């Protein structure tokens, strides 16, 4: 029996992954990554880095990407809950500019597999959330990029009201990110040089 269930999303190549949970009187056990099993469900991935971040309620990290050296990510939550968002920014994709959001939490133990060429960000819904994610490329500070979380074209519906969040907490860097339009314009201008 397959250890992981791959669930389609409305976005091409973006998948929800459900691990098999083995519960008994001690607690539970699950495999959170298995290269062979992922290959068997059609995900041929090579990860090179594991990250762990902790955020308090209302913290929004994002929307991030790396260019060049894009990173595919396998995201999960081991404490608390987040609203995890991926945006397809592959210009040749049929789902270009579409976003998808999902609650990942310590109870549903769901993971989101975000391929390369996406923006990624999340909003912390619980008092604290510990997020673990694997990446297919190393982090390079000089290639770290982002788009503002409330971009008027992407129109992401962050569930602030539903979770009683009245103030979004951002890093200095994330509060100054460009809009998607500004980013596309900058990219075009750079191509001309
Ligand atoms: C992401 C990252 C950061 N850092 C350092 C840089 C900085 O001093 C400190 C905090 O970095 P940031 O503020 O960029 O961290 P954060 O805002 O959590 O950035 C992350 O957000 C989520 C949504 C993602 O998808 C990730 O890929 C990454 O972009 O950690 C690393 O050393 N390695 C890394 O892989």
UniProtKB/TrEMBL annotation:
GO terms for cellular component: cytosol. It holds the Pfam family dTDP_sugar_isom. One of its GO terms (biological process) is dTDP-rhamnose biosynthetic process. Pathway: Carbohydrate biosynthesis; dTDP-L-rhamnose biosynthesis. Keywords: Isomerase. SUPFAM superfamilies: RmlC-like cupins (SSF51182). The record marks 139 as: Participates in a stacking interaction with the thymidine ring of dTDP-4-oxo-6-deoxyglucose. The keyword Isomerase applies. CDD domains: cupin_RmlC (cd00438). The active site is at 64 (proton acceptor), 133 (proton donor). Homodimer. This is dTDP-4-dehydrorhamnose 3,5-epimerase. The lineage of its organism: Bacteria, Bacillati, Bacillota, Bacillota incertae sedis, Caldicellulosiruptorales.
